[in-house]
Amino acid sequence: MKLIHAILVGAASLLPTALAQAPAEDTKSFVITVNSDASPISHVEYRYPSYAGIRGLEGACDVTFVISTAGKADAIRVGACTSDIFRGAAKKTVEGMSFSPRAAVTTGATATVRWAIRSNDTRLKTASID
């Protein structure tokens, strides 16, 4: 059986050639934005909760936190959320941020984390593998 290499939204997989003949469904791009009053100098890769992404759910959460003198987010509290599905992801998003070291602890920092899905009406781009 001949296999093809397919790339969808940055993920690679192998599919039988027969599947490549069928028209592709709309692909989706997952978009995560963080609006914060404190600018991080770095952060870990933001993640879309898989349960929400599979089901096509979008959401947003408000987060408050403290920035330690070492520049780490601490005492993270997730406030209003459009869905409980996003609560854990909101906390992990802020936990993964690094801020500039400071002379004193910064209290009352806030962030709003949003997860959205964009539909792209594109077809599979394929290449044969021998």
Secondary structure layout plus pairing:
Layout: E1 3-8, E2 11-16, H1 17-21, E3 27-36, E4 42-43, H2 50-55, E5 59-67, E6 73-81, H3 87-95, E7 97-98, E8 106-120, E9 125-129
Antiparallel strand pairs: 1-2, 1-9, 3-8, 4-7, 5-6, 5-8
Description:
With 130 residues, this protein is an alpha+beta fold. The protein has a single domain (27-120), classed as TonB (TolA/TonB C-terminal domain, 2-Layer Sandwich). 15% of the residues lie in helices and 49% in strands. The chain contains three helices and nine strands, in the order ββαββαββαβββ. It has a four-stranded antiparallel β-sheet with strand order 3-8-5-6, covered by helices on one side. Strands 2-1-9 form a three-stranded antiparallel β-sheet. Strand 5 and strand 6 form a beta hairpin. The longest helix is centred in the last third of the chain and has 9 residues, at 87-95. The chain is elongated, with a radius of gyration of 20 Å.
Category by helix and strand content: alpha+beta
The low-pLDDT segments are 1-24, 122-130
Outline? elongated
What percentage of the residues does DSSP assign to strands (E)? over 45%
Biggest sheet details:
4 strands, antiparallel
CATH superfamily heading: TonB
Query: Helix count?
Result: 3
Radius of gyration: 20 Å
The residue-averaged pLDDT reads 77
Order of helices and strands: EEHEEHEEHEEE
Sequence of strands across the biggest β-sheet: 3-8-5-6
If classified by CATH, what would the architecture be? 2-Layer Sandwich
Query: What level of helicity do the residues show?
Result: 10-25%
* CATH classification class: Alpha Beta
